[in-house]
Amino acid sequence: MTSAGTPSAARRPGAAWNMREKSAGIVIIGNEILSGKVVDTNSAFLARELRQIGVALKRVAVIPDELGVIADVVRDFHARFDVVFTSGGVGPTHDDVTIEGVAMALGRPVVRHPVLEDKLREHLKDRLNEAHLKMTEVPQGAELIDSDRTTFPTVRVEDIYILPGIPEILEQKFLSFKDRLAVDPYYLKTVYARQFESNLAPRLNEVLKRFPELLLGSYPKMGDPEYKVKVTLESKDRAYVEQAFACLLELLPSQWVVKTEG
Length: 262
Description:
- By secondary structure, the protein is α+β, with helices and mostly antiparallel strands.
- The chain has 9 helices and 13 strands.
- The protein folds into 2 domains: about 20-180, MoaB/Mog-like domain (Molybdenum Cofactor Biosythetic Enzyme, Chain A, 3-Layer(aba) Sandwich); about 185-260, Alpha-Beta Plaits (2-Layer Sandwich), CATH 3.30.70.
- The chain has helices at about 30-35, 40-50, 65-80, 100-105, 115-125, 130-135, 165-175, 195-210, 240-250, and strands spanning about 1-5, 25-30, 55-65, 85, 110, 135-140, 145, 155, 160-165, 185-195, 215-220, 230-235, 255-260.
- The strands form 3 sheets. A 6-stranded mixed sheet has the order 3-2-4-9-8-7, with helices on both faces.
- β8 and β9 form a beta hairpin.
């Protein structure tokens, strides 16, 4: 069970209506993900990291290496969310069409970036070929984000960050620029309960009635000898989540609570 609260009229003093917000969407690109040949870990990594810096991940799409599909989804996400991340499809082979798809979504041509070309020429020298040069292509007007953490810059165009599909490289690249995306953080409290979710539900509903802006999550756990449900309470307003947390503990019989965190 989850709840995002209710807007405007239901806001209460202390709710996080004036906190800095930023929304995000992730586009995972690759036939190998859709066919089960490769397991996507990039979206899980980005979701965790974005939450830590206060960015609300709103949607994840997993799509094939098809130019039109990439363009349509990126265009849609770009219109909906403050920041968009793509993962995959930036290598030297025939099915690496993400750059072209992002360019199409924005109505821009694809060009070779002189800085990327110089880097590759310096690194590869006489081994440079056309496949390598494909990796210097960017949507026109793209920015390069350089970092000591990475050997190859990250390509950013408007608020779209074009990331590789290889998890180790994607993680290095994201960590190199994530601080520029940070907004007000989420504050988290967690309660582990030894009761079933159906028994907790009336009390959780009462907490939401009193704290309608609370982000409340309820997650059953099967087969765990310690607890049956993990309950999370989140807000960008520290005082608000502390008050909601205290309220929940008052409503729960003490013998139901295994432990708390946060």
